[in-house]
Amino acid sequence: MVEGESSKSEEDKQRLIINPKYPEQRIRVNPSLSQETLSYLEKLLTYYSDVFAWCPEDMTGIPRSIAEHELRIPPDVKPVVQKKRSLAPERSLATCQEGCSDKKDFKWIEEAEKAFNHMKQHLASLPEIAAPETGELISVYLSVAEEAISAVLTIERDKVQVPVYFFSKTLELAEIKYHPLEKLALALVQMARRLRRKAIKAQVLADFIVEVPKQTITEVNTAVTEPSDLKAWKLFTDGASSVEGLGAGLILINPEGLEFTYALHFDFQATNNEAEYEALIAGLRLAKEMKVQKLEVFIDSLRVSSQVNDSYIAKEPNMKKYKEKSKELMNTFQTCTIKQIPRFQNKKAGALSKLASLTFAHLTKKVLVEVLKAPSIDEMEVQDVITEEDPNWMTPIKKFLRNGELPGDQTEAERVKIKARQYVLQGEILYKKGYLAPFLRCLGPEQSQYLVKEIHEGICGAHFRARSVVAKLMNLGYFWPSMHRDTTEQLRKCDACQIHAPVPKNPKHDLVPITSA
C-alpha cells in the first residue's frame, strides 16, 4: 500500500522507503513482523522497486477512456453564459485571499521567459496583408478537410509570397458528404464571390477547370466534349439457371479500372441461354444509362455470342427476339463488340450470377440487386400519346444545358442562363428542380393540354377547378411555366362544366318597390 507524505509519528517506523527518489512515498508493513523478516522484506522490495508505478508517467498501457473523464453533453447543445454571481462579504474575502495566496506561489522561471520571448517574436513577425495592384498576378491556394474548407490569395513581391485575403468555412449538413473535388470547387466559388471584379472571377474559374485533370471534371463540365482517343468500357456478363431459381451477374469496368457490380434475380422460368441473354440485355441497358459510348462485352456463352455476331442462326422464336433486342441496344453505342471468353476468365460474374439465382438478400448491402418479373422480350414498348413538336419553351434551355448554345439576343441569352439553373437535362427529358420536392418532368403545350383534359374530364374525372387540377399535375410529377394560366383557360371551354354550372337566379338589375295608393 503506497501512501503520501505524513507527519512524523510512531507509525513511521512501520513504513519502509524503498525508492530514494520518492522518499515521501512509503510502504506500510505489519508491525508484528520480526526484525529479520522486516529486513528481508525491505531488501526484496528495494530490489524490485521498478515494478511499482511511482509517478503518472510510469502507468503505461492504461486506455485513455479510463484515465480521462468528461461530461456527456449532447453535441448540438450550445454553451450558455451564466450570469455574474454576487458572493457574501465573508466568502468574497476568502476568495480574494485564496487568489492572492496562489499568486504568491507563482514563480517566473527561465523556461517561461524563453517561451514568452518566442511568442513575442512570432507575433511581431506575422505576415501583413497587402493590397494587390493592377497587373499583379494573384495566386489562389485551396485546402479541403473532412468538415472544413479554406482558401488564401497571395501575390509575389520581392520573391516572397504575401497574403492578400484568407477565407475559411465549416461545412454543414450535405456539404460534409461532398466529393473532394466538389469541396475544392465549393472553396473556389466561395472565394470567387468575395472578389470584386467579375473578370477576375471568370478567369479564376477558367484556370481551375484547365488545371484540374480532365478525368476528375467530367461530371461537373456541362459542355459536351468527345475526345477522339476515348477508351472503351468493359462489360462481363453471365447468367445462371438452376432448380432453385435464375440469376445473372454483371461487372462493368471503366477505363480507369473502377468496377461496378450488379446482380439480377429472375421471378420467371427460363433456360440457361435465355438467362445469358437476359444478363447481356441488362448489362447493355446499364451501360446505356451511364452514357457509355464505346463498349466491349465479354461473355462465356459461345451460342449467345455467335448468334449476336451472326455466326450462328437463331432458330427458336425466343432466341430470335432476344437477338433482335440485343442488337437494338448495341446500335445505341458508338462502338460495341461482343467476344466469347473461357469460363475461368469470367469467374467474378459467374459467381455473382449463381449467388443471385439461389439467394440475393445478403447481396443488397454490397451490390445493386434488381428483380425481373418478366422476360425482357415480353416488355411492351411505351410511346408518348402526344408527340411534342419543336420549338417550344424548353428548346433554348435544352440547347444551353446540352452544349452551351445561347440565343443571339443578349437579353434573351441572360434570361436563359438564369432560368437554366432551375432545370436539369437527363437524356432528352428536361426536369424542373425543387428544394423539397423531387424533379418535375417538363411538358410542352401539346402534352400539357392532353394531361389537363385527362385529369379534368378523363376516367374518374370529377371536373375539379383549375387550382385542384394544377395541384394534381404537380403531385404526379409534371410542370410547365404557365400551368395555372393555361389550365384556367382550358377549363373555361369545358362543355360539361358550363352545362352543370350553378345558374345565378338573381335579377339583372336591382328591384324597385312600387306602391299603389
Characterization of this structure:
By secondary structure, the protein is of the alpha/beta class. It has 4 domains: 2-58, no CATH class; 138-216, Ubiquitin-like (UB roll), CATH 3.10.20; 233-378, Nucleotidyltransferase, domain 5 (2-Layer Sandwich); 395-499, Endonuclease III, domain 1 (Orthogonal Bundle). The chain is built from 16 helices and 16 strands. The chain has helices spanning 35-47, 64-67, 89-105, 110-124, 180-193, 198-211, 272-289, 302-308, 317-330, 347-358, 395-403, 410-420, 445-457, 466-476, 483-491, 495-499, and strands at residues 2-3, 15-16, 26-28, 138-144, 148-157, 160-170, 233-241, 246-253, 259-266, 294-299, 335-340, 368-372, 423-426, 429-432, 440-442, 478-479. A 6-stranded mixed β-sheet has the order 11-10-7-8-9-12. It has a 4-stranded mixed β-sheet with strand order 13-14-15-16. A 3-stranded antiparallel β-sheet has the order 1-3-2, with no helix packed on it. Helix 5 (180-193) runs antiparallel to helix 6, helix 13 (445-457) crosses helix 15 (483-491) and helix 14 (466-476) packs across helix 15.
List the helices and strands and how they pair.
Layout: E1 2-3, E2 15-16, E3 26-28, H1 35-47, H2 64-67, H3 89-105, H4 110-124, E4 138-144, E5 148-157, E6 160-170, H5 180-193, H6 198-211, E7 233-241, E8 246-253, E9 259-266, H7 272-289, E10 294-299, H8 302-308, H9 317-330, E11 335-340, H10 347-358, E12 368-372, H11 395-403, H12 410-420, E13 423-426, E14 429-432, E15 440-442, H13 445-457, H14 466-476, E16 478-479, H15 483-491, H16 495-499
Parallel strand pairs: 7-10, 9-12, 10-11, 15-16
Antiparallel strand pairs: 1-3, 2-3, 4-5, 5-6, 7-8, 8-9, 13-14, 14-15
Helix pairs in contact: 5-6, 7-9, 11-12, 13-14, 13-15, 14-15
